TrEMBL record:
It comes from Flavobacterium granuli. This is PorZ N-terminal beta-propeller domain-containing protein. The lineage of its organism: Bacteria, Pseudomonadati, Bacteroidota, Flavobacteriia, Flavobacteriales. Residues 44-203 form the PorZ N-terminal beta-propeller domain. InterPro entries: PorZ_N (IPR048954), Quinoprotein_ADH-like_sf (IPR011047), Secre_tail (IPR026444), WD40/YVTN_repeat-like_dom_sf (IPR015943). Keywords: Signal. It comes from the Bacteria. Pfam families: PorZ_N_b_propeller (PF21544).
Length: 764
């Protein structure tokens, strides 16, 4: 396999767009963490953390399925493809079951297990086994029958002692009996018995804790947690020791021709004569740095699922080359922070908890997405930079990128290659100190970063007195002491930072609210908790953003505040914020009251995109009075309501949303305003009968006047743009759909000094 540092080119991937009221979504998921595999004679099916992909061995077409297509963002724990019904069933950790009809791609979410009156901790689906048109679903509470023809649940078997819930890892059919490997013995019931819901009808053949059971040929095998494979002896009605393993199994399965045992470090493949045909040790595979999760065989090809490196193939014959067939994507789903420009997107995966604790330290590397695909830079290329929490792109030189490490310092990347790690030895960055002092302990927590108009990079250094640093465009470092503005600097953590048009740096902090600094006047000011100290709801601020009207939007762990004008930094001794009061059900309420706000971004039309820690994403109007969208896992393809970061492509209006379970984008229309009207364009054009969306007029100046008339000069639409794009719903002032024909679009700047004329054809 090629090194992951090399640019990964797109595989031929079939992607489907999820439409919600004519709004377009796109998924950017990681497929590296393989949870389960299944197979048909021609196709391999694989489940990653919360997405699926399959590869047809005849056509080599790879198809991906994500939340954009209708999957849940929850963690997948089981997968099974039924050749008889041409359906794929997906099991989840929370008990959800999704049935995918492979014939038409339709999906059915079955929530019966979720709705059972049982503790949520025992609803996990562990495996599937098909027999007689029924899928036997092994769960952490027992066995559930699922009818594959009707897609409905039938009976539930609680087979523990006295009918108690019991963890069932797997089931198998052998000589007319159904066998279950459980956490408390192997249990069996007669398949002809119509009363298997009675726990008394189940017999215990062996005690102990068992991980798996499979039927292969005329034999039955089971594996226990001690890593020992047993073989069933029908004469004594018990399982006897057969094959000792050095570790417990991670997957235990059989196909028509092969018996496959997978452990974290080894795969054993036996043929029908029970001869070991192939053994694969993890250290044999180049570039793999993770363990095995599962494996299967189709014809003479082995498919190996790994916990971090995706799906790998190899021939049954030794000596062949290993190939990684995983769809390209980011290294991981849990993207902690990102930044997007019109041409590229950079992401980092390191993190810290609610209390800014980065331990255990992460070593996940960095990813970049561009028109060429995904580039994943592994940890061994970043000079040991751990727990990277922020990333910033130089706006005057997009080949220069900096990643903040919340433990190791600041990483510089030039032309996609990490070049230097700034730390306490080669820069102005400082390590925090511990008590009692230990000179060998180095912990440099860099977080918020921002470039100013002169190309200088401003950096926040947590838990030190000189918490604000700047790396000049010429390469010199300078520090600013903050002990007079920060209470307990050694306990203060910084979050994000933004620089306004006057050059004032606004820094979100954990214990000091928002701190502003302007180097021209060498002045620090603070906005914090308390009516007379800034009116924040709490000192813990997680994000700050300056909008198109020079307002500072502040997201805290207990709600939202707005500073009406950043210019007040120059004139007011105490800066004071206000909450946004809205009317809901004719009652005055505070917008996002007590919400943990994780990020705020401003789009080209001055709308605010607000991410939360557990309530999804809100998009509110420029003044916050109208909530235009509220996206959650229930009404959108968001894989999680935990929003880590948001970033907006100013050119296209595409809003990237990083959640705890995957990256997805919303293709909005709010683009940044252009400097002139030379690049105005209209799409789609022509508008065909099957099209149900709106016509977009892009490349506009802010506050441009747009008039649309028919060829006779009759006015059918008029509006003023906010930002760079305006939409027309192809109606005459919202009353009726306009007829087929050519329509003239007249665009003029607010001062009338610049005009543009375009045409669009409507075909009904």
């Amino acid at each position: 396999m090629q090194k992951r540092l090399l640019l990964l080119f797109f595989l031929f991937v079939l992607q489907i767009t999820f439409a919600q009221t004519n709004l377009s979504w796109q998924g950017y998921f990681s497929y590296t963490q393989i949870k389960a595999v299944s197979e048909s004679p021609t196709t391999i099916y694989a489940a990653s953390e919360n997405a699926l992909f399959s590869k047809n061995n005849s056509t080599n077409i790879i198809k991906t399925t994500t939340t954009v297509d209708g999957l849940s963002g929850e963690t997948i724990t089981a997968l099974y493809y039924s050749p008889t019904f041409n359906k794929t069933i997906v099991g989840y950790q929370n008990g959800l079951l999704i049935v995918v009809n492979e014939a038409d791609g339709s999906m059915l979410k079955v929530v019966d297990i979720i709705n059972k009156n049982l503790p949520s901790s025992i609803k996990r689906i562990n495996s599937f086994m098909e027999f007689g048109g029924i899928a036997y679903v092994s769960t952490n509470f027992g066995i559930v029958q699922f009818n594959l023809a009707t897609s409905k649940f039938v009976d539930t078997y609680f087979i523990g002692d006295n009918g108690a819930e019991i963890k069932v890892s797997q089931t198998a059919i052998h000589n007319g009996f159904i066998y279950a490997s459980t956490s408390s013995g192997i249990r069996k019931g007669d398949t002809a018995n119509p009363n298997l819901i009675d726990f008394k009808q189940w017999q215990v053949t062996n005690a102990g804790d068992w991980l798996g059971i499979v039927s292969f040929g005329t034999e039955l095998y089971a594996a226990n947690t001690a890593g020992y494979v047993h073989k069933y002896d029908s004469g004594s009605n018990t399982f006897n020791g057969f094959l000792p393993l050095s570790e417990a199994t991670t997957n235990f399965r059989s196909t028509t021709d092969y018996f496959i045992i997978t452990t974290a470090n080894t795969i054993f493949i036996y043929n029908k004569q029970l001869v070991l045909q192939r053994q694969i040790n993890r250290n044999e595979i180049p570039e793999i740095n993770s363990t095995f999760s599962c494996a299967t065989v189709i014809s003479d090809v082995i498919y190996i699922g790994t916990t971090e490196n995706g799906l790998i193939t190899n021939s049954l014959s030794p000596g062949s080359t290993y190939e990684n067939i995983t769809p390209v994507g980011p290294s991981r789903n849990s993207i902690f922070s990102m930044q997007v420009t019109p041409t590229q997107l950079w992401t980092v995966y390191g993190d810290y908890d609610t209390f800014y604790n980065p331990y255990p330290l992460d070593d996940f590397g960095i990813s970049k997405f561009s028109t060429s695909g995904w580039l994943n830079i592994p940890f061994d290329q970043v000079f040991g930079a751990k727990s990277m929490s922020r990333i910033v792109i130089n706006p005057t030189n997009e080949n220069q990128v900096y990643a903040s490490s919340f433990f190791s310092g600041l990483l510089k990347i030039e032309k996609d290659i990490p070049t230097i790690l700034y730390n306490q030895t080669n820069s102005g960055l400082e390590s925090l100190t511990i008590s009692p002092p230990d000179p060998n302990y180095i912990d440099i927590r860099i977080n918020g970063t921002a470039f100013d108009k002169s190309g200088n990079l401003w950096v926040t250094n947590c838990r030190v007195v000189n918490g604000l640093k700047v790396l000049s465009s010429g390469g010199q470092w300078k520090s600013y002491t903050m002990d007079k503005i920060l209470s307990a600097p050694s306990e203060n953590d910084f979050a994000t930072m933004v620089i306004d048009k006057h050059g004032t740096k606004w820094m979100a902090t954990s214990k000091n609210g928002v701190v502003g600094f302007n180097e021209r006047s060498n002045t620090f000011k603070k906005i914090t908790f308390g009516t007379d100290l800034g009116n924040l709801p709490i000192q813990d601020v997680r994000t700050v953003a300056v909008d198109n009207k020079n307002q500072l939007w502040i997201g805290t762990t207990k709600g939202l505040r707005v500073l009406s004008n950043v210019n007040s930094f120059q004139t007011e001794s105490q800066l004071t914020t206000e909450s946004i009061i809205i009317l809901e059900d004719n009652l005055a309420q505070e917008l996002l009251y007590e919400q943990f706000i994780s990020d705020i971004e401003v789009d080209g039309a001055n709308n605010k995109w607000i991410g939360t820690a557990d309530a999804g994403v809100f998009m509110v109007s420029p003044n916050g009075q109208e909530t235009k969208y509220h996206f959650t896992t229930d009404n959108s393809p968001l894989p999680s309501n935990v929003i880590n970061d948001i970033s907006i492509n100013s050119s296209t209006g595409e809003v990237f949303i990083a959640t705890s379970k995957g990256l997805i984008s919303f293709k909005g229309i709010a683009t940044s305003a252009s400097e002139n009207l030379s690049n105005v364009y209209v799409y789609p054009n022509p508008v065909r009968p099957e099209y149900e969306g709106t016509v977009k007029i892009n490349g506009l100046l802010n506050k441009a006047n747009v008039k649309i008339t028919d060829v006779a000069g009759n006015l059918v639409y008029e509006a003023t743009s906010e930002g760079g794009t305006l939409e027309w719903d192809t109606t005459a002032f919202g009353k009726y759909r306009v007829a087929s024909g050519v329509y003239m679009i007249f665009v003029s700047a607010q001062d009338g000094g610049e005009t543009k004329v375009k045409k669009v054809m409507i075909i009904r």
